[in-house]
């Protein structure tokens, strides 16, 4: 409690609002950073390698792969598992399911960022309000003083006023920066998820796009694949 009492004395009336803003900022940043660690680590190359080993007509193997991917933490694995689980539906329906899933995950990835941006805007205003209140209190004390005003009296009042502004800016800087960086990360992850889900959807249709060569080839040698047995589409 001595730390909180000291902080209250240093920041004046705006101490508790600034403390609440700082605690919320730390909580959101830590939770979002943990989410970053849990969602990253798997690239499209690894997913392509997994799909290349599968036969899209082998339901038993695909069901087993779906269950395995569902247990993984990366979002990309969960998205691929969702598409494979809906492989018996038509391609437009799978695209709609993937779009709904992507919107849901994008919302989850950006969770808390609006509050973080709001804290980044409010904190400097709270600090400025504390500065104004500190100056009002200082001049009120000076007006009631019967003796001469010493530099120490002015220094104490101005110090209290300036500390609240500094505290507000110290809270706002990581809040705004974190919100912007985490927002860019969420958009980047969503774009990669969309790209990989589109490739998986094409794979379920029997197409395998080679990005490096720009070629489109058949993804398996099953007899049901007309691109392999020479039958016309």
The assigned structural class equals mainly alpha
Tell me the strand percentage band: under 5%
Order of helices and strands: HHHHHHHHEEH
How many individual helices?
A: 9
Helix content: over 70%
Would you spell out the secondary-structure blueprint of this structure?
Blueprint lengths: L1 H10 L3 H25 L4 H9 L6 H12 L4 H11 L5 H19 L3 H32 L6 H54 L2 E4 L4 E4 L7 H4 L4
Antiparallel strand pairs: 1-2
Helix pairs in contact: 2-7, 2-8, 3-8, 4-5, 5-6, 5-8, 6-8, 7-8
Quick structural summary:
With 233 residues, the chain is mainly α.
Q: What are its keywords?
A:
transmembrane, mainly alpha, protein transport, 233 residues, MotA_ExbB_proton_chnl, ExbB/TolQ_transport
Provide an overview of this structure:
The protein has one domain (18-209). By secondary structure, it is mainly alpha-helical. The longest helix has 54 residues, at 151-204. Helix content is 76%, strand content 3%. Helix 4 (59-70) runs antiparallel to helix 5 (75-85). Strand 1 and strand 2 form a beta hairpin. The model is unreliable at 221-233 (pLDDT under 50).
């Amino acid at each position: 409690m001595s730390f909180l009492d000291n902080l209250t004395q240093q920041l004046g009336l705006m101490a508790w609002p600034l403390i609440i803003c700082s605690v919320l900022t730390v909580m959101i940043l830590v939770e979002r950073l943990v989410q970053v660690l849990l969602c990253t680590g798997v690239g499209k190359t690894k997913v392509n390698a997994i799909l290349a080993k599968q036969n899209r007509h082998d339901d038993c193997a695909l069901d087993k792969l779906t269950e395995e991917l569902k247990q993984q933490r990366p979002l990309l694995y969960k998205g691929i598992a969702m598409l494979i689980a809906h492989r018996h539906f038509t391609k437009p329906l799978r695209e709609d399911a993937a779009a709904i899933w992507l919107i849901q995950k994008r919302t989850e990835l950006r969770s808390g960022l609006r509050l973080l941006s709001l804290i980044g805007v409010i904190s400097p205003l709270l600090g400025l309000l504390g500065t104004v209140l500190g100056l009002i209190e200082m001049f009120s004390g000076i007006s009631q003083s019967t003796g001469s005003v010493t530099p120490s009296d002015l220094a104490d009042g101005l110090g209290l006023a300036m500390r609240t502004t500094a505290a507000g800016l110290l809270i706002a800087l990581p809040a705004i920066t974190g919100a912007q960086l985490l927002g860019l990360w969420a958009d980047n992850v969503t774009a990669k998820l969309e790209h990989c889900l589109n490739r998986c959807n094409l794979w379920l249709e029997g197409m395998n796009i080679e990005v490096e060569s720009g070629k489109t080839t058949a993804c398996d040698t099953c007899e049901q694949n007309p691109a392999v047995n020479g039958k016309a589409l």
